[in-house]
Design a protein that fits this description.
Two copies of one chain form a homodimer.
Chain A: E1 10-11, E2 21-23, H1 48-51, H2 57-64, E3 70-72, H3 75-81, E4 89-91, H4 93-99, E5 104-109, H5 120-132, E6 137-142, H6 146-158, E7 161-167, H7 168-173, H8 175-183, E8 187-191, H9 197-205, H10 213-226, E9 230-232, H11 239-258, E10 265-269, H12 274-288, E11 295-301, H13 306-309, E12 311-316, E13 325-330, H14 352-359, E14 365-369, H15 371-385, H16 391-410, E15 415-420, H17 428-435, H18 446-454
Parallel strand pairs in A: 5-15, 6-7, 6-9, 7-8, 10-11, 10-15, 11-14
Antiparallel strand pairs in A: 1-4, 2-3, 4-5, 12-13
Helix pairs in contact in A: 3-5, 5-6, 6-8, 9-10, 11-12, 15-16
Chain lengths: 460, 460
């Protein structure tokens, strides 16, 4: 089926249409997500001062701000955003042809910058506010490396020190990710390490461990609070991160409107929720305020199914149990997902905002796929669309393809929109293992999950 | 010095401004480059039939076409170009600030597509014409892998078979490059191989060789002419490739004009000449027709200095001496450059069009840099511009920085324009060796070059 190409392949907003305000979804939620709890007292955290030893002051304010619908983006951040924004919205004409579907498929492409993913959208403001506060440096963790790379770029630009705790498994498997962060001047420590108390404890108990995201978070927080003029920053899960990432959705909605389009289905992959939460935000606003009713799908790996098989409960955000507790869909903070090539989706929890929206039925559906199905979709997509997707993003691609094939079946001309969060240049080992047939699919058993749930902190 | 930001950071032409015609520089040259010679008879090649066993028919016509100033781009190619074009023109505000220069620096960024370089501009038409001719497959060679990746993408799109002979050294050092080409469905053979007669001969003489671009070309041509319904394609040097790459220059000139700018200095890196030739083409037209007089600089690695230290003479394009002879700046077809991380610039010769322009003084200057200086510029650029350049492209960056620093000295507000051909994602080993201080600089001695020149074919 050859369609009339009445909208461009790539819809680029002009630079002067970069949003000047982030959108704070909480201001429109019918019920707010339950507050974070202090890990010592288990009492709700309501004051900036309680978070200020960990996070920059301005970011603490954003974290707790549930009332301001729009928050101004400082001019200096807008300028930095111009390096890579507005990002293109792409009409997937070639994929539509390949699938012979009557559906219209659009994707926002966030991998069009050197860090290769959407993570830069939050790395820039987080580094900016640290600089404004006069701090000397930041600490963070990284799993797959997208967040670490984005933050390295932002810190290089602002000439801020950066220490990255990188999950040891990734550190050993992905030397190039380490190299690129070092190129941007960051210091990389494989986690768990002997440089922190929590790292030492974990290494004592599990000398051969490959580490985990939860464990690297614990180390990075310790390094921040014990360091001089340092703060910790996180690339997902937090309310502030979803706020910054709303720029994806705001641009998308404007670019779609320029084409006279409104999506029937909105799809995003979900690890900690940073891209999904930011991407769907303005469409969720329409849904919450009764203006429209798009159907939302969150896609996660079957090996780490926090929304599809997790519990909605208070849990720690890290393995070392030093962070505040958040009410979220979780597999348990010491749940260790089976090896999976979508490192960015291997997190036990889920953004409290998205968790609440899912629990209340505003976020319509969560679904999971095994990774061989995801890579099959990725290769098919790459060959016709000419774009090599990250394994994480390919979860959304797989769901978009499935939705488009349903339309082929039913004859419906739905408009399907998904977020393509990043590129797969640093995931070639994964592609190779898919192509040579050695890739496996591993899914946790019910018994494993039940055992993990039994260890959840007793709060409610 | 904080400059008034009166033009955008990124200048994106709208999609409907993609050029509809390539520009054929030869039509405006005062004297044409001497013709290619048949390697058997040493007689000038003037007829399509003489090239048709090697190249697709339409491409043979383009190769020999010295008179048509503009050649229409088929609609299907324009549509494919839309995947990544128009590519952005970027005002390097951050680099200008970093250098504290009064100069204005612009660069065209051609790495904004999955193949990561400008090579796609010629891969698309070469695959398209093969498909139109009803061929089953193509063969080619690749060194660093940019060309092989681009061609794999184009062949995947047109569902054409592709066999890539990859220089054995790169094949072993860059497994991810191999993986990405395989993801797009190409078959990769390390060269020299036992699959061709010329490969067997070379392996017999040098069993431990790591191969070379010249040798991989010989194998790819043999595989094409002995295969069924196959042709050979090349990613640089040829007139047809410069023709296709003129799209870079055409877009650049239009985007610069949109900003009210015209460059004083135009800079490109030079290996076989594909990006430089296409990038400067429309500005060279102005120069040849007396409309303007921008200053042109070609930048090459000191380890492979074909323009700065080579001879302008007839030579073979490959090591196996099966190709036609071209008059060009050459280091000798069996010159083996020292290992250098800019694999895309490790070619013994130079485009005959550029060679002629340089010999006649239209191309003003060729200069060379050692790779540690190039990487120093690359890291400095990456940290302030937020873009990880390929080692090849970083040669142009180094020259642009040097020119901007001259302006700082003199106080001149020159407009400096360069082409940033690609990204460095697959070159992290090189960046790592620069950062840890293990990178070396090797430059051929005069004696080595004299010995190589003595082996040039006796033609003139």
């Amino acid at each position: 089926m050859i369609k009339k190409k009445d909208v461009p392949y790539r819809i680029n907003l002009p630079e002067d249409r970069i949003p000047r305000q982030w959108y704070n979804l909480r201001a429109d939620m019918k019920e707010l997500p339950p507050p974070m709890l202090n890990p010592g007292t288990l009492r709700p955290i309501t004051k900036v001062e309680e978070l200020a030893p960990i996070f920059c002051d301005e970011l603490c304010k954003q974290e707790l701000n549930t009332t301001d619908r729009y928050i101004d983006i400082p001019e200096a951040i807008v300028d930095f955003y111009k390096m890579c924004r507005p990002s293109p919205l792409i009409r997937a004409y070639c994929l539509e042809e390949e699938l012979e579907t009557p559906a219209k498929i659009y994707y926002k492409f966030e991998g069009n910058n050197t860090s290769g993913s959407h993570k830069l959208n939050s790395a820039i403001p987080q580094a900016y506010y640290a600089k404004e506060q006069g701090l000397k440096g930041l600490t963070t963790e990284t799993g797959a490396g997208q967040w670490g790379t984005a933050l390295s770029m932002a810190c290089a630009y602002y000439k801020l020190g950066l220490e990255v705790f990188m999950v040891k498994g990734s550190y050993n498997q992905k030397p190039y990710r380490k190299n690129i962060m070092e190129t941007f001047g960051a210091r990389i420590t494989p986690s768990p390490s002997m440089t922190t108390e929590v790292g030492k404890k974990i290494l004592e108990a599990f000398p051969d461990t490959n580490g985990s995201l939860g464990c690297a978070i614990s180390e990075a927080i310790e390094a921040a609070v014990t360091g001089e003029s340092k703060r910790y920053v996180l690339g997902s899960v937090l309310n502030q991160v979803l706020l910054h990432q709303s720029i994806i959705g705001l641009e998308t909605k404007e670019a779609m409107a320029m084409c006279g389009e409104y999506p029937d289905v909105v799809i995003g992959c979900a690890g900690g929720g940073s891209n999904l939460g930011g991407f769907i935000a303005p469409y969720m606003q329409d849904r919450l305020t009764g203006k429209a009713k798009p159907y939302f799908i969150a896609v996660e790996p079957a090996s780490c199914p926090s929304m599809t098989r997790g519990k909605y409960a208070y849990d720690f955000c890290d393995t070392g149990k030093v962070t505040p507790l958040a009410k979220m869909y979780t597999l348990g903070s010491d749940f260790l997902p089976a090896p999976n090539h979508a490192g960015g989706l291997r997190y036990h929890g889920m953004s409290p905002i998205l968790s609440k929206l899912y629990a209340d039925g505003w976020l319509d559906e969560a679904r999971s796929y095994v990774q061989t199905d995801v890579f099959e979709a990725a290769v098919r997509f790459a060959r016709c669309e000419g774009l090599l997707p990250a394994p994480e993003s390919s979860h959304a691609i797989k769901a978009a393809i499935d939705e488009a094939l349903k339309c082929k079946e039913s004859g419906e001309e739905k408009t399907i929109l998904f977020n393509l969060t990043g590129t797969g240049y640093f995931d070639m080992t994964a592609y190779a293992s898919f192509l040579d047939g050695s890739m496996g699919d591993s899914v946790p058993t019910d018994e494993q999950l039940e055992a993990s749930f039994a260890r959840l902190p007793k709060v409610d």
